[in-house]
Fold:
Amino acid sequence: MELFKFLLTAGFVIIVIYTFYVLFMKHQNRPRLNRIYLLTGILAAFCVPFMQFSFFQASTSAIIVLPEIAAGVNSGLSYSFATDNNTGNAITLMQILSAIYILGLMIYVFITLYPLAGVLQIINRSPKAKKDGYTLVFAKSKAKFPFTFFNFIILPSKIEEECNPLIIMHEKAHVELKHHYDLILMFIFGAVFWFLPFAKWYQNQLKALHEYEADSLVLEQADKLHYANCLLEQAFDVKAFSFFSHFSKPNILSRRLHFLSEEKKKGFSLAHLLFWPLMFALMFSQSCVNKTEDKPYIVEGEIYTIVEEMPEYEGGQEALMAYLQKVNYPDEVKDAEIEGSVFVQFVVDKQGRIGNVEIVRSSMNELLDDAAYSHISNMPEWTKAGRHNGEYVNVKYTVPFQFKLADD
Structure:
């Protein structure tokens, strides 16, 4: 459940950052700044979903967990403990989706890493020349195009002799700029978000920036026209793989030639200056995800999770379970055959009132979340508050609701 919540939130961050980049930054000849922006965006996608646990919440080391409340089982309502066999044996939609996600991730990893076997074979079997900070590999047959693999620069045998120095300069730039670290991060990024088209487009933009950045470094020492001619000569029979930096890729060749013809821009543009407010807005929006608008009130003061005398509900534990069993299983959700689990946290304050109600684990269905949240929010006051060291104290509870369709 938490995995899909993370993927949805992170996917939203990716889409926002990518869209902003394409609209306002893609066509600017500032490869270094654009690269930093996209790399920071990847890190933000991994970090922002967890920001909701960093703001406005007090953390605790333990919580009192009540027995699981099962709604909809056997056409009635009952409660059971989390180890109940009725809820453990059925294959849920979340389990199916999880299996599909893991399968897709494994396929992505295999397809991405499979070409590495051929590259390692080329490196091991080909003559090499150790240089300052990199190693030249003179491939005899298999390699059809020059590329960089970490600190190895692979040069095919069929390359115009006059282009060799420029190609080496370009590939050396990839090594010096540490693009291989970007590729590792992109591999992890692509594996986690294999299902999201925006992630693939995002990777393509970052790989293109690698080429623009390497080009700008080469042009500090080389003639533009000569370099452009070499790019055109190497623009055919080129295939792209995730872990390699290529000298010439046909799909971005026109853009590279365009950037070669104009001066590299210096300083920050307005779009780059808006980057940090955008990041802050994304982090702040996620920090406020947990519900607050319908809470009965906020409990002030220290909150306990373990006390000497526990709070008491009117009628005792059986009456409490009877109330919790009455949670509404929305008809439209049942008609759609949707199941899910919701964990709701709340505090019984010093007067026995219910406060600080929040969903700590979502079902990924808003109607189920609302049903569980409202049911706890409307709970009657408890007749006796918790006591610790002779004083009344606030006590925190968590209730797991299991919404499960009845077996036919």
Remarks:
- The chain has two domains: 2-54+95-284, 290-403.
- The domain at 290-403 is CATH 3.30.2420.10 (TolA/TonB C-terminal domain).
- Residues 53-63, 74-90, 237-241, 290-296 have pLDDT under 50 and may be disordered.
